[in-house]
Amino acid sequence: MGFTLRQAAKQAKVSPTTISRALKIGRLSGSKDEDGVWSIDPAELARVFPITATGNGSLDKTEQAQVTGVTAADVMTMKVEMLEQQLVRERQALDREQEMVADLQRRLDKAEERVFALTMEGKTSTTNRPSWWSKLTGG
Fold it and tell me: What's 57's DSSP letter?
């Protein structure tokens, strides 16, 4: 006899919605009877949501190896590989951001040069022309 949805949730220390969602997406397998009540095999529940005798929802490394067939060394190797992949992605993102900052700095430098050139151009052209007051007074 398997667990009902509520019993499985209580045993795994998760909400019934979590169990239902796991069943719906196929992460956890179970069957429904003619009344629509779920029956979840305890071994299947333990595969997806590890259960201990204390009911705290976690296994020690030996129990985990027995349930999943994966050793602690395998788990650590997988974690290291995942972290290395994440590190590569983070470095790539950092490189892209540094390139963007360098490009923006170049654009800013060019804009400052243009503003300076236009400012200097405006100062030299106004000093050579007579003022509007001298034009009015004729002097």
Answer: S
Q: Which residues of 7-31 are buried (b: 16+ CB within 10 A; e: fewer)?
A: bbbebbebeeeebbebbeeeebebe
Residues in CB range of 123: below 8 A, 6 or more apart: none
> pTM above 0.90?
no
Cα torsion angle, 24, 26, 29, 31, sign: positive
Rounded Cα gap, residues 108 and 33, in angstroms: 70
- Nearest alpha carbon to residue 51 among 85, 28, 33, 76: 28
Contacts of 41 (CB under 8 A, 6+ apart): 2, 3, 29, 30
- Which CATH number does the domain 5-69 belong to among 1.10.1660, 2.40.170, 1.10.287, 1.10.4100? 1.10.1660
Give per-residue pLDDT as tens, 77-106: 888 888 899 999 999 999 999 999 999 999
pLDDT digits (tens, 9 = 90+) for 32-82: 888 889 999 888 888 888 755 444 444 455 545 544 555 777 778 888 888
- Residue 67's CB: how many other CB atoms inside 10 A? 14
